[in-house]
Automatic annotation (TrEMBL), chain A:
The gene is gatB. Keywords: ATP-binding, Ligase, Nucleotide-binding, Protein biosynthesis, Transferase. One of its GO terms (biological process) is glutaminyl-tRNAGln biosynthesis via transamidation. One of its GO terms (molecular function) is asparaginyl-tRNA synthase (glutamine-hydrolyzing) activity. Residues 352-499 form the Asn/Gln amidotransferase domain. It comes from Streptomyces wuyuanensis. Pfam families: GatB_N, GatB_Yqey. It is an enzyme of class 6 (ligase). This is Aspartyl/glutamyl-tRNA(Asn/Gln) amidotransferase subunit B. It comes from the Bacteria. The keyword Ligase applies. It catalyses: L-aspartyl-tRNA(Asn) + L-glutamine + ATP + H2O = L-asparaginyl-tRNA(Asn) + L-glutamate + ADP + phosphate + 2 H(+); L-glutamyl-tRNA(Gln) + L-glutamine + ATP + H2O = L-glutaminyl-tRNA(Gln) + L-glutamate + ADP + phosphate + H(+).
UniProtKB/TrEMBL annotation, chain B:
The keyword Ligase applies. It holds the Pfam family Amidase. The keyword Flavoprotein does not apply. InterPro entries: Amidase, Amidase_CS, Amidase_dom, AS_sf, GatA. It comes from Streptomyces wuyuanensis. It comes from the Bacteria. This is Glutamyl-tRNA(Gln) amidotransferase subunit A. PROSITE patterns: AMIDASES. The active site is at 82 (charge relay system), 157 (charge relay system), 181 (acyl-ester intermediate). It catalyses: L-glutamyl-tRNA(Gln) + L-glutamine + ATP + H2O = L-glutaminyl-tRNA(Gln) + L-glutamate + ADP + phosphate + H(+). One of its GO terms (biological process) is translation.
Length: 504, 499
């Protein structure tokens, strides 16, 4: 499929139209068992090994609600400032698809467990944008189809399909925003910030790891444009399965440009679902909704209503953790850093490791420096997230302690970190094995300094002549000779002393 | 050939004789298997006979007894299981072609309870496809004959179970009742059938027709036998969210102490009139007279919403069935048609459903799909649910005045096979008196109250109790049964012609 519409530039599009967005985010809960049966939710198992009569939809099987799933839904609802239903039911969403064993999805329809909330999201420059939440409801995931034999991996052109029902029945919470208006040219940024903030929130609540790359959090982007000054929403497109923060931003941007081009040519937007392409950031038409799909929702007769007691809801509310944005602002003030720096730390996923490192005794500056420097680089190069690195915050704190007490300098500390990452053991073990200790033996240092002065007579003369800045070259020579194990500050002092020059 | 006298024994008698060592469970099972062999070709009550499994189960009971272990109240008693409950390793078809060849990998909770109670499961009985029907003619595997007259229907959907009892192929059977599928077959075969309170018997492993109405229950030839079976199969099941989490009502105790002395018995105005066979009305009126003689006070009741019950039922049940039956798509189990490597999954599903489902099932799937469609939901499904609420309220009001309600179970005696097969509306009327109970979720029983003079076929008396008061059915039922048997000089079934 090729994109036939020429795009309008983003700036031109925004000059004529206001974007309206609706974001639907599905979060796979991290419950141990599925939503309606006792099967494991562990990822990566043999296909169809984590199934039972209920999640396979065998004749006669019945669902039973996972209480932890309900609790997680309420926590999410509360953290999104939603009202929690006193009484609500599941509903059946009827449609045929091979990866759905019962050919209906057990979901919620007009009685969601949580509704009418909001999430404040902070943009890069610190501006806060309030995204209103329509509802959060419970449902079950479908199985997974793998289409084999076609070029695109889509069903079109495939010779056959493989079905894995391990995912069928995993609890999902679908969080739906109200129409997001007024974001203007910042719409893509707002969309991305919303999904990012939601992800932080979900993680802080401990209800899911919300890893987008693992499909634990998936986003559908609905977008329409209305002419500037109009209050009537245009026809929307639904871009499905936009599965990274960057993609969310790009998908919004692309759809704004595409809609503007179609509308600008006097065309009409077709209400349809669209596929997002990670490779070039475009979307293409999926299935056209000629008429609204009729899911024939009705209350699920196999389940009793969910009626969370007010006492329970209040208990859960009282136990909510500090919300991520509030926490970030607190930490930012404690650490005395800028919005921008905090944003970078957030983007790197470094908040929790830094906090833990500080808790283990490190000072905030050092903790930030290691996690945002050496460790971030290593994670980046090895394609891992910070929390996947084989080093603990306690170990990082130990390294900083060794620097503080003068046992290590920065260069040596980096080598220690490297050793820990390479699996050589604790920082102290690495120091021991590699023999990494600052050389503070004045005698040994004195010899190295004398040799450096002797071997660099010209530079030594310049220093004697008052060019103190040239001392760096001699310090470098000493450091080289001691394989970096000397205390550079002490080396400098010794050189100046021997040359009879004072720094001031 | 001569039949073993064992087959005429009640379940209670069989259990007692096995416990005392007078009979072995294997002897009892063999006698019933022989009876099945002798008559089932004519009756066609069974879809599957599990000879080996039944004998193995019987041997295990005998061994238990030899070891001196305590036996349960129905240990070693044979039972005919409606083919709607899953049985691990034994075919379960629900009377449908679409499940032909499916061997379930799991036991229904009810199946498990029967096995745990050492009940001997002889096999699976015939039924209207997916329990949709009142004659068992909708079975994809051919009709079942009524042992009173093999050219007539044994009721439905559980005609296989009622026929197995009336033909002495089994002393106990299991049915399921969505709109009358236990009670109407019991009525037209002169046997006893009970639809317990909704939620009393687990639905886990019972193939769903209409989830909010379906209820499994006991079928037997006597009230006491039904009570003994009731106690075995009822009770809370964590695998069924709609199952009642409360102790099973004292049904056996009630069945052993039948009495209507001082009870208030309601007769509902709406349960008579046009369409009721004269002989049925006559036997019902005599039953009311009998109740009075036994010391009950009769109270006339008006339940206007009952006139709407049939209409509401034929919106709710098809709606739920249209969703419940969506899973039969030929992809994972059962029949698959047209999978020749060129057709899409969608085409294979269409061909499978076209061939695998019978007319009545298709009719109800279409009805339900339509009733749930957006734009029609409120007018059809929504209104039907409101009627359901009204019916519940009428029952509640009624039970403020009376302890139980009585009515004919079904307006006519067994009709000839084929008579209503092409007239769904006529067929649906068979459930006129039974449906309100399903919609309200309370308990009801049918038991024999005589033969209609005009055709010498059994008439059923329905007793209805409030939800969770199932024991009242047995208390009243046992009293009525005892009085009638005393009057007739023998159980009604003795008058059935020998096969």
């Amino acid at each position: 499929m090729t994109v036939t519409t020429d795009l309008v530039s983003y700036e031109d599009a925004l000059a004529s139209y206001d974007p309206v967005m609706g974001l639907e985010v599905h979060v796979e809960l991290g419950t141990r068992t599925k939503m309606f049966c006792g099967c494991s939710t562990e990822l990566g198992a043999e296909p169809n090994s984590q199934t039972c009569p209920t999640c396979l939809g065998l004749p006669g099987s019945l669902p039973v609600v996972n209480a932890v799933g309900v609790e997680s839904a309420i926590k999410i609802g509360l953290a999104l400032h939603c009202e929690i239903a006193e009484w609500c039911r599941f509903a059946r969403k009827n449609y045929f698809y091979p990866d759905m064993p019962k050919n209906f999805q057990t979901s919620q329809y007009d009685e969601p467990i949580a509704f009418n909330g909001y999430l404040d999201v902070q943009l890069e420059d610190g501006e806060v944008f309030r995204v209103e939440i329509e509802r959060a409801h419970m449902e079950e995931d479908t199985g997974k189809s793998t289409h084999v034999g076609g070029a695109t991996g889509r069903i079109h052109g495939a010779s056959h399909s493989l079905l894995d029902y391990n995912r069928a029945g995993i609890p999902l919470i679908e969080i739906v925003t109200k129409p997001i208006v007024g974001a203007g040219d910042r719409a893509p940024e707002v969309a991305k910030a919303y999904v990012a903030e939601l992800r932080e929130l979900i993680r802080a609540l401990g209800v899911s790891e919300a890893r987008m790359e693992m499909g634990q959090m998936r986003c559908d982007v609905n977008l329409s444009l209305m002419p500037k000054g109009s209050e009537t929403f245009g026809t929307r497109s639904e871009t499905k399965n936009v599965n990274s923060l960057r993609s969310v931003e790009r998908a919004v941007r692309f759809e704004v440009q595409r809609h503007a081009a179609v509308l600008g040519d006097g065309g009409t937007i077709v209400q349809e679902t669209r596929h997002f392409h990670e490779d070039d950031g475009t979307t293409t038409s999926g299935r056209v909704k000629e008429e609204a799909e009729d899911y024939r929702y009705f209350p699920e007769p196999d389940l009793v209503p969910v009626a969370p007691s007010r006492e329970w809801v209040e208990e859960l509310r009282a136990a909510l953790p500090e919300l991520p944005r509030v926490r970030r602002n607190r930490l930012r003030e404690e650490w005395g850093i800028s919005e921008h720096d905090m944003q970078s730390i957030l983007n790197a996923g470094a908040i929790d490791p830094i906090v833990a490192t500080i808790e283990a005794g490190a000072d905030p500056v050092s903790a930030r420096k290691w996690w945002m420097g050496e460790l971030a680089r290593n994670a980046n190069e090895s394609g891992r997230s910070l929390d996947e690195l084989p080093i603990t915050p306690e170990q990082v704190a130990r390294v900083t302690a060794l620097v503080v007490d003068g046992s290590l300098n920065d260069k040596l500390a980096r080598q220690v970190i490297e050793g820990v990452l390479a699996g050589e053991g604790d920082p102290d073990a690495v120091v021991e094995k590699r023999g990494l200790k600052v050389v503070s033996d004045e005698g040994a240092l004195g010899v190295a300094v004398d040799e450096a002065i002797a071997g660099n007579a010209a530079i030594a003369d310049k220093i004697r002549g008052g060019k103190v800045a040239a001392v760096g070259a001699l310090v470098g020579a000493v450091m080289k000779a001691t394989r970096g194990q000397a205390d550079a500050a002490r080396v400098k002092e010794l050189i100046l002393e021997k040359l009879g020059v004072s720094e001031g | 050939m001569t039949d073993s006298p064992i087959i005429k024994l009640t379940a209670a008698e069989i259990a007692a004789k096995i416990a005392s060592g007078e009979l072995t469970a294997v002897e009892v099972t063999e006698a019933h298997l022989a009876r099945i062999e002798a008559v089932d070709e004519k009756v066609h009550a069974f879809l599957h006979i599990d000879r080996d499994g039944a004998l193995a189960q019987a041997r295990a009971v005998d061994e238990k007894r030899e070891r001196g272990e305590k036996l349960g109240p129905l240990a070693g008693v044979p039972l005919a299981l409606k083919d709607i409950f899953t049985t691990e390793g034994i075919p379960t078809t629900v009377g449908s072609k679409i499940l032909e060849g499916w061997i379930p990998p799991y036991d229904a909770t009810l199946t498990r309870r029967l096995k745990d109670a050492d009940v001997v499961i002889l096999g699976k009985t015939n039924m209207d496809e997916f329990a949709m029907g009142s004659s068992t003619e909708n079975s994809a595997y051919g009709p079942t004959g009524n042992p009173w007259d093999l050219t007539r229907i044994p009721g439905g959907s559980g005609g296989g179970s009622s026929a197995a009892l009336a033909s002495y192929e089994a002393p106990l059977a299991i049915g399921t009742d969505t709109g009358g599928s236990i009670r109407q077959p019991a009525a037209v075969t002169g046997t006893v059938g009970v639809k317990p309170t909704y939620g009393a018997v687990s639905r886990y492993g019972m193939v769903a027709f209409s989830s909010s109405l379906d209820q499994g229950g006991p079928c037997a030839r006597t009230v006491l036998d039904a009570a003994l079976l009731h106690e075995v199969i009822a009770g809370h099941d964590p695998l069924d969210s709609t199952s009642i989490d409360a102790p099973v009502p004292p049904v056996v105790e009630a069945a052993r102490n039948g009495s209507v002395e001082g009870m208030r018995v309601g007769v509902v105005k709406q349960f008579r009139g046009e369409g009721y066979q004269a002989g049925v009305v006559q036997r019902f009126d005599e039953s009311v007279q009998l109740l009075k003689e036994l010391g009950a006070e009769i109270v006339e009741l008006d339940c206007p919403s009952f006139d709407l019950a049939l209409s509401a039922y034929y919106l709710i049940a098809p709606s739920e069935c249209s969703s419940n039956l969506a899973r039969f798509d030929g992809l994972r189990y059962g029949l698959r048609v047209g999978d020749d490597g060129t057709r899409s999954a969608e085409d294979v599903t269409s061909l499978t459903r076209e061939e695998g489902f019978g007319d009545e099932v298709k009719r109800r799937i279409m009805l339900g799909t339509y009733a749930l469609s957006s734009g029609y939901y409120d007018a059809y499904y929504g209104s039907a649910q409101k009627v359901r609420t009204l019916i519940k309220q009428d029952f509640e009001k009624a039970f403020e005045q009376v302890d139980v309600i009585v009515s004919p179970t079904t307006p006519t005696t067994a009709f000839p096979i084929g008579e209503r097969a092409d007239d769904p509306m006529a067929m649906y009327l068979a459930d006129l008196c039974t449906i309100p109970t399903n919609l309200a979720g309370n308990a009801a029983m049918s038991l024999p109250c005589g033969l209609a003079p005009e055709d010498n076929l059994p008439v059923g008396l329905q007793i209805i109790a409030p939800a969770l008061k199932d024991e009242r059915l047995y208390k009243v039922g046992a009293a009525v049964e005892a009085a009638f048997v005393a009057r007739w000089g023998h159980p009604l079934l003795e008058e059935a012609p020998s096969l």
